[in-house]
Design brief:
- The protein is an alpha/beta fold and 368 residues long.
- The protein folds into two domains: 214 residues, Spore Coat Polysaccharide Biosynthesis Protein SpsA, Chain A, CATH 3.90.550; 96 residues, UDP N-Acetylglucosamine Acyltransferase, domain 1.
- The protein is built from seven helices and 30 strands.
- Strands 17, 18, 19, 20, 22, 23, 25, 26, 28 and 30 form a ten-stranded mixed sheet that branches. Strands 8-7-4-9-14-11-15 form a seven-stranded mixed sheet, sandwiched between helices. It has a four-stranded parallel sheet with strand order 21-24-27-29, with no helix packed on it.
- The N terminus is likely disordered.
Length: 368
Amino acid sequence: MFSKHNQKKDVLQYFVHEVSIRGRVLHKKVVRAKFMQVVVLAGGVGSRMRPWTQSIPKPLLPMLDKTLLEHVVGCLPEHLVDEVVVAGGYKVDMIEAYFKEHDVPFDVRIVPEDSPLGTGGALGNCRDVVSGTFACFNGDIISSLDASNLLDLHQRSSSIGTLGLWEVEDPTRFGIVGLDDEQRITRFKEKPTPEEVFSNLINAGSYVFEDDIFDWMPHGKHSIERDIFPKLAAEGLLSGQSFDGYFIDAGTPNAWNDGVQACIKHHRYSKGHVVGDTWFENPAERHKSILQSMVSQGSRVDNASIVRSTLLQDVHIGQDSQINNCLIGRGAQIGASCRLTDVIVDHGAFIPAGTVLESGRWPPEQNA
């Protein structure tokens, strides 16, 4: 038996799948049969990841064999994603060109912003291209969330928005929610003071929305967390679901390496090889002194120690150097006997032999 039920504007469809023997129905299941749009909020310039992001927009930075944007979208099963709408204003031409040239399982549309609009303004800017039920993700998030479960709750709850939630010890840097027994969000408070904390469940930057949310959003710059979510929560129009596993805001160098390790541990790659806890794009570059790291194609390590670091393409690390918790940009050359800890090295940079540097950026003028 096959029957279709059209959701809003044909964005999401379902069919009823029956298993039967001799005419007797044993199992009936509603199965998603079509696609939905995904909005990725990528409006920032990636200042915490400079100098990497001065030439490469953060959504295109490679984490193992995929871009950060592909990992963000990856919390939805591939067969559910029809189109990814990137809401951003920084180097969006590069993002558009990249996805025109590379084979990915979804279409990419850019909705540019001429000036910073905040999270609410960036999403509201998409109101003319997004319809029906859609997903929305912050552009830095690497997590274990299965957003199809979020979608299931959303369909059951009849909410305008359904939020992925994560539990933390200190929620003061995040938006917190009050959640009742029916998974309805009763309160929302963005970045509370310690005295204002009423929950350790935080907004994990992953949502399923109805396009009705645009009716609640003004035009222009605003914050969805400060201006929209509290109003929707007060009206009983938000639901939430917590998840276990891992949740990483990969927008800082240290968190980027956390994201690399999570992707290695949970097999979030389709090319390359993992030896121990390190991913090598080229298996010939395996090295016993490289631990908890990512080593991209064309990189060469001359008997050096690499720990918890990311080496992009065509990097050369000189003899007896020690690299710890660093991000080394494409084509960078690190001389012999260097000691680098917590450093971001620009693409194409050269670091002289014997350099010792703890924290910061290279070239040195990037620290200004």
